[in-house]
Design a protein that fits this description.
By secondary structure, this protein is of the alpha/beta class. The chain has 23 helices and 14 strands.
Length: 830
């Protein structure tokens, strides 16, 4: 495919704008906000649909703000023919139309035929990359490097891995072997319970033998029809699969002579044999489990419960202590947060003075210091006013401390109680010393007395004129130190309580978090109650086990015979021979896939099956006939179901209390539900197996060709400094011209980016005969200098011989090179 022209009716900032892409490679320059990303998104959106605007795509629609038109068209060339692809506003990605050179028009179906298997995610993964992809290369370790590069060997393998994970999650949400809460697990458990109830209710019948014969006949007819339906469904799936592969087979048949293949089992037969192996092993395991359980019931007394009735109160007491400790833990967390704030404030005070801080002065000492420093006394009016303000402040401090003290006592919070007591006491002492300081002795200016005062109170490291000013900080320093000490004591008390509590716990619960201990205690209490119930269940379980063992033996023999029948077709006799057969078969298929490019898309079984039809019309005739047969079988099954239900209704009328009718109807409904759930679960599992097999086959022969092509490109980009790319057990290595070997992680960022580009473009070149689409590069070479950029452009010209190359860049250095560019900024000025 080649994009020749584009017309934008309205998309983001572009409206009523034409673009010509006749140059190849086409280099498009524009600074930031010039519309490069918008144009690139337009090209992809016309091919694969507009973004739906939900979730992370809500900003990826590019709905224009200046015009009501939304969309545009592309003139593309595919296999020598021109097509106009037009997409406009509409649901599900927009309304699309396709017009060929003869004027014939089509829609979404014709576009899908032109694009083939390519979709948006696969296209962006294979044919589009940018600087973000290259930057991420430097963040990969060795294993991630190898995985990232080897994924290029299989088309869209990263997306396939995501699909496998999605299928596995969906299957797990239906059924898990050891699960309880999943729908299929619950339905199977309920089905077993209903069966037990029905078996008990059947003892109440007096007359139902005559109808049982008719019911048995209808059930046999139903089983026969279902078996035939199960046999025909794979055939229908195979025929529909062949119908999809016919265009590829026709192209392959026209250019290659059909090669005879060995007579292998079909994939469906292999899958069925593997499923039978799994089911056989599971049945054997279930038999052993039932036999062991039955032996324990027969020869051993019931096991005692894990916890005697006397231990349950002890567990309950420990649980109550856990609840109390969790509350204390939350309080300690809040207190620790406050302590961190106090510590920050204390550190800030100490940092401010750069010397160890002495104890704060008392009110008398501050008055004495003021006298020594010859500080003028305040007037009586100011003194009275100060005393009044001081009294109000002291009263607020005393009341606040008392309130905290009362709250702490009521909440049983020692920390809050201590804070309240300290605050009230400190306020009273501060008021006392302030009043004492107001009657200080007359001032003096004796310097020796000042120095002696400083030595006495530890103030000699600070200037005398700061002694009075720093007293508030010294007072705050003392308060914070006391508060931190109290918080530390509370933490130690809590740790001691926690240690004593852990010593009371069983060894298995020690050293766990309180939340985990509480959960474990809840589990132990529940287990103690459950153990009592298990003793009562054992009596009923013995009879159920005997019935289940008989049914398991019957199922095991049936499955074993089915497996041996498939083995006989393959000429093997046991599981080991079958495993070797699968290995030989896989090797033969891989060899057949490597024969030619088109053959890679067809398995040996597909080619063999398609060769049985002379033309597509014959295949469609067989497909239509098979569909008709399936419809008839479905109708037969439906009618037989109705007859069975009628028989059951008549049988139910013979039951005295009528309970069997309801139970069997409920079980029948549940069986239908289980059947659909099993079908859905198997569909996910088979899809996972198919994807894994497809990826294994897809990467077998493409990767070596990609490596060979990438080596040529890597040599060109590095001016033949590196000549070889090797895959070893230690990872991906490159060989320099002097034969020195380097691991990928040893390369510089620029060389690693060149290697990534070489591998990416090597893949595109190898796959160009199967998937030829335009290569879109978004500022992929911003870290390249002019020499490396010139080499890269030369490589793009070489790639352009087979693929169209469109390179977007915001680097204005591209203008210095002798290349033709499309300047978006110049278009906007026009």
């Amino acid at each position: 495919m080649k994009i020749k022209k584009a017309h934008i009716d309205g998309f983001g900032k572009w409206h009523d704008q034409d673009f010509d892409f006749t140059a190849n490679p086409q280099i498009i320059y524009g600074p930031n906000e010039a519309g490069k990303t918008t144009l690139m998104a337009f090209l992809v959106s016309i091919l694969f649909g507009f973004a739906d605007g939900r979730g992370k795509n809500r900003f990826a629609q590019y709905i224009p703000k200046t015009t009501s038109s939304y969309g545009g068209s592309l003139l593309v060339e595919i296999n020598g023919h021109d097509y106009v692809i037009k997409r406009q506003r509409g649901r599900n990605g927009g309304k699309v139309s396709v017009t060929d050179s003869q004027g014939r028009q089509g829609g979404e179906q014709e576009l899908e035929q032109l694009l083939g298997p390519m979709d948006r995610s696969l296209y962006q993964a294979l044919f589009s990359f940018g600087q973000r992809d290259l930057t991420a290369v430097d963040e990969l370790n060795r294993d991630e490097w190898q995985q990232h590069l080897q994924q290029l060997g299989a088309v869209g393998s990263a997306q396939w891995d995501q699909l496998i994970n999605q299928y596995q999650k969906q299957a797990d949400h239906l059924y898990k072997p050891r699960g309880r809460k999943w729908p299929l697990n619950q339905d199977l458990h309920q089905y077993a319970n209903l069966t037990d109830k029905i078996n008990q209710a059947r003892g109440k019948f007096h007359r139902y033998q005559d109808l049982q014969a008719d019911l048995k006949t209808n059930k046999a007819k139903l089983r026969q029809a279902q078996a035939e339906l199960q046999k025909q469904q794979p055939l229908l799936q195979k025929l529909e699969h062949l119908q999809q592969l016919w265009p590829v087979y026709h192209e392959w048949q026209s250019s290659h002579q059909t090669r005879p293949l060995a007579n292998y089992l079909t994939d469906q037969q292999v899958t069925m044999a593997q499923e039978l192996q799994v089911r056989e092993k599971e049945l054997r395991r279930q038999q052993q489990v039932y036999q062991q359980r039955l032996a324990r019931i027969d020869h051993q007394p019931p096991q005692a419960t894990k916890h005697s009735p006397q231990s349950i109160p002890e567990l309950q007491r420990l649980k109550e202590q856990v609840v109390e400790l969790q509350a204390e833990e939350a309080l300690q967390h809040r207190q620790q947060t406050q302590a961190n704030q106090w510590q920050q404030e204390l550190t800030a005070i100490k940092t401010r003075y750069h010397h160890p801080l002495p104890a704060p002065l008392t009110s008398q000492e501050k008055a004495e210091l003021a006298r020594l420093l010859n500080v003028q006394p305040l007037s009586r009016a100011n003194t009275n006013q100060s005393n009044g303000d001081l009294s109000r402040t002291a009263m607020i401090g005393i009341v606040g401390g008392f309130v905290l003290f009362i709250i702490g006592l009521l909440a049983n919070a020692t920390f809050i109680t201590a804070i309240g007591a300290i605050a009230a006491f400190a306020t009273v002492m501060y008021l006392y010393y302030q009043r004492q300081g107001s009657h200080s002795a007359p001032v003096t200016t004796d310097s020796q007395a000042i120095m002696a005062f400083g030595q006495k109170h530890g103030l000699q490291d600070f200037p005398p004129d700061q002694w009075l000013l720093m007293q508030s900080d010294l007072q705050r320093n003392a308060e914070l130190t006391a508060q931190l000490q109290t918080a530390n004591q509370d933490q130690q008390r809590y740790d001691h309580q926690l240690t004593v509590f852990n010593q009371q716990l069983p060894p298995a619960l020690q050293n766990l978090t309180l939340a985990a201990v509480r959960t474990k205690l809840d589990d132990l209490l529940e287990q103690g109650q459950q153990a009592r119930q298990d003793i009562q269940v054992n009596t009923r379980e013995k009879a159920t086990i005997a019935n289940n063992l008989a049914q398991l033996n019957q199922d095991y023999n049936k499955i074993h015979q089915q497996k041996l029948a498939i083995y006989q077709q393959a000429g093997v006799h046991d599981d080991n021979q079958f495993t070797q057969y699968l290995a030989n078969r896989s090797a033969a298929q891989s060899q057949a896939l490597a024969s030619d490019a088109y053959g890679q898309q067809l398995t040996a079984e597909d080619r063999q099956a398609l060769a049985a039809y002379a033309n597509r019309d014959e295949l469609m005739t067989v497909l239509s006939k098979t569909r008709h047969q399936l419809a008839q079988l479905t109708l037969t099954i439906s009618h037989t179901h109705e007859e069975i239900q009628k028989d059951k209704v008549e049988i139910d009328s013979l039951v005295e209390d009528g309970t069997l009718s309801n139970l069997e109807q409920e079980r029948a409904n549940l069986a239908a539900k289980i059947w659909h759930e099993v079908q859905e679960w198997l569909r996910y599992q088979l899809a996972i197996q198919w994807v894994n097999k497809a990826l294994a086959g897809a990467s077998a022969d493409r990767y070596p060709a990609i490596i060979r092509q990438a080596e040529q490109y890597f040599a060109l980009l590095t001016d033949h400094r590196y000549s070889q790319i090797d895959l070893t057990a230690d990872g991906i290595k490159v060989v320099r011209r002097d034969q020195e070997v380097f691991l990928v992680e040893e390369l510089s960022q620029g060389t690693a980016e060149q290697l990534y580009i070489a591998l990416r473009l090597g893949f595109v070149t190898v796959m160009s005969d199967q998937a030829n689409f335009p290569i879109i590069i978004d500022d992929g070479f911003v870290n390249f200098d002019n020499v490396r950029r010139q080499r890269m452009l030369a490589l793009l010209e070489k790639i352009a011989e087979k693929n169209q190359v469109i390179y977007f860049t915001a680097d204005d250095r591209i203008k210095d090179l002798d290349v033709k560019i499309l300047d978006l900024q110049a278009l906007k000025r026009e």
